[in-house]
Amino acid sequence: SSASSQLERRSFPEDERTMGAALDEETKEPPLPSLDTTLTCSCGACEVAVTGQVCDISFCHCNICRTHSKQLFSTTVGVLGADAVTVTKGHDLVVSYATSGSVERHHCSTCGSKLCAKRRRTCRIERL
């Protein structure tokens, strides 16, 4: 099956989705939030700042994501912009590797915690 058929978008119950937000006139969907947060690995050696507009929240069950997450599917938050994630602590401990032609994953070399996966236009944060 194709990669696009393996990506599922989360459906929110109506009351949880809107939370008082005005719906977008064109899509009739509530606007996705912006993120401005800091994430750390399990051991605390690495820290990344995440700032940007959320473009989607998805579940993927392709072979690469299942292998990487050790789960039946991977939950991700897409944040627009190649510079959406900045390493703020432990630069020398962050290990990067390509899992496909368009995705580069980053994790802590000390504890192995996954930090993020970068694509051409978005940065994907797993299990946020």
Helix and strand arrangement:
Layout: E1 7-9, H1 14-18, E2 34-40, E3 47-60, H2 63-69, E4 74-80, E5 85-89, E6 94-98, E7 104-108, E8 114-118, E9 122-126
Antiparallel strand pairs: 1-3, 2-3, 3-4, 3-5, 4-9, 6-7, 7-8, 8-9
Could you describe the 3D structure shown?
The radius of gyration is 16 Å and the shape is globular. The protein has helices at residues 14-18, 63-69, and strands at 7-9, 34-40, 47-60, 74-80, 85-89, 94-98, 104-108, 114-118, 122-126. It contains two helices and nine strands, in the order βαββαββββββ. Strands 1, 2, 3, 4, 5, 6, 7, 8 and 9 form a nine-stranded antiparallel sheet that branches. The chain is mainly β and 128 residues long. Helices cover 9% and strands 44% of the residues.
Main sheet makeup: 9 strands, antiparallel
> How helix-rich are the residues, as a percent range?
under 10%
Portion in strands: 35-45%
Radius of gyration: 16 Å
Strands, count? 9
Shape: globular
Q: Provide the residue-averaged pLDDT.
A: 77
The class by helix and strand makeup works out as mainly beta
Count of alpha/pi helices: 2
The end-to-end distance, rounded to whole angstroms, is 27 Å
User: pLDDT under 50 segments (min length 5)?
Assistant: 1-8, 10-20
- Order of secondary-structure elements: EHEEHEEEEEE
Note the main attributes of this structure:
mainly beta, nine-stranded antiparallel beta sheet
Summarize the entry for a quick read.
The protein is mostly beta strands and 128 residues long. It is built from 2 helices and 9 strands; from the N terminus they run E-H-E-E-H-E-E-E-E-E-E.
